[in-house]
Amino acid sequence: MEEEKDSILIVDDLKVHLELTEAIFEREGYNVLTAQNAADALQVVKGFSPDLAILDVMMPGISGYDLCKKLKESYGTRFFPVILVTSLSEMEDKIAGIEAGADDFLNKPFNSLELVTRVRSLLKLKRLQEQLDHSESVILTLAVALESKDPYTKGHSERVADLSAEFAAFIGLSEKEQYLIRKTGRLHDIGKIGIGDYVLNKAGILTKEELEHIEQHTVIGEKICSPLRSLSAILPTIRHHHERWDGTGSPDGLKSENIPLMARILAIVDSFDAMVSERPYRKPASVEEALGRMDTEMSSGQWDPTLLQRFIEMMRKR
């Protein structure tokens, strides 16, 4: 089958510039979409979803900077490359372009070969990003499918993800850290895909061997996620969310602040959600019962006591 061509949106209020740039990319074999103002460009994006945009900065009404922001917002978390082209050459203009979210910046008059080369490079980066996103989606789907097999754990990872992000915000972590811990929450139990159902669903007390077997899910989860560079930042949290503050946890026996901060946060939220959820071997505790138990066990050595105190504070304010 013939490979689908990449499509490029070109926006310029001067028709002669628009036609010149259009001819360059049609000659290179791209599908070209054009618009002479921001309003038309936004309509084109709605209808055709181009792969990349080349925007003139100086346009009447909505400038190229503002259009760049709007395009980036419309694509959400998906990578949509934007090149700004302008006759302006001051450093302030380039900074404005970067702040608008532009991925590249060219001055007029531009060299057509340089422009084509930069477009190719950004489209290659976009394809790589899409492959990573697809691989991440597969792993997330596996995590959801794993939980769906067991009515007792269904929704657990999503709840842990949301509450961990809320707690991270409560203690003042950055938006990026909140995003990362939410992602980790969704994937923290992915390693249970390598644990036998007879252990996961056992109604009675686990034997020593069974407990050691189920503890391996953190290591398995790290191995599943490690091939993806986009998940590298969350690997330590996946591996260490069952460590204990007193150093008696698994898999590496890390102690106190040697345990990554996000793993300490996840350990608290994971335990709380387990307490208030039904399991084959017990009924769920109420929120207040779970918080009371955690408060009583503040110095048990399981959790970071300072973080636990803040978590209880947040939940009771809630």
In short:
With 318 residues, the protein is an alpha/beta fold.
Instruction: Give the CATH H-level superfamily of the largest domain.
Output: Hypothetical protein af1432
Estimated structural class:
alpha/beta
Helix content: 40-55%
> So how many helices?
14
Number of domains: 2
What percentage of amino acids are in beta strands? 5-15%
Mean pLDDT: 88
User: What is the level 1 CATH name of the largest domain?
Assistant: Mainly Alpha
CATH architecture of the largest domain: Orthogonal Bundle
Taking all Cα atoms into account, the compactness measure Rg is 26 Å
* Span of the ends, CA to CA: 56 Å
Strand order of the largest sheet: 2-1-3-4-5
How many β strands by DSSP? Answer: 5
Low confidence ranges: none
Largest sheet at a glance?
Answer: 5 strands, parallel
The geometry reads as elongated
